[in-house]
Amino acid sequence: MPVPLCIYCGAAEGVQAEHVFPSSWYPDSTPLTCQRLTVPSCPTCNARFKGAEERFIAPVMMSLVDCDDSRGVYDRLSRSWKPDHGKSERDQAHRGAKLLSTLSRVQFKNPPGASTAPVLTFLATARDDLVAAAPASPLQHADIDIIGEKFVRGLFFADTRRTLAPSKFIARVVNDDLFAVGGPQTKPLVDALRSLPSSDSFAPGLRYRVMASPTGDQHWFFLLWGQLELLTIVVPNEA
Ligand SMILES: [Zn+2]
Asked: Tens of pLDDT along 63-75?
């Protein structure tokens, strides 16, 4: 059997099985029967996704509320940055550095009546009190584009067993209240996508809908952890 090509770059051998939806992003409510989709991918593409996913997930998870579609994801993630979970001194130092870098990307607002600095309040409180956190700066467009591309290419391959033709991927988080990214020009499109039936469920943490436009573009609309809406516009390159 020949090694399949990486479905992302279409050039290198796909020697690794890449989780389209990262395995640590599945909520605890995921049924045991849920197929955790993997696709052939090369080490270079995997590394590109890993960096974008790590920069994306921490500020997002600190800002979402706990619900069935997100349960357990934050707890798993936060174990990787809590120094007291370290197995050695070096591991503890590594986790401490990760915690500081994570905290620097999140802006905390104190709950009413709290008098300590917001970061200290965060460190001392339980997950449920974290609703007053938000990303300190808009999430990096480049990272979101990469995550949108990863989902779209992976789901397209799972559906058709074909590699999506070279395209440009433009992805944006559209929750106005959460992240204030997206812009008014996307509103009619988002409203149309929101009204599509939501039967295309891939896993409880990631639901999606697809709409083809008359111009040949595809609009993919993802609902992550029941809360975060990610719009990805796929524009095929000129032949
Ligand atoms: Zn590749």
From this structure: 777 788 888 998 8
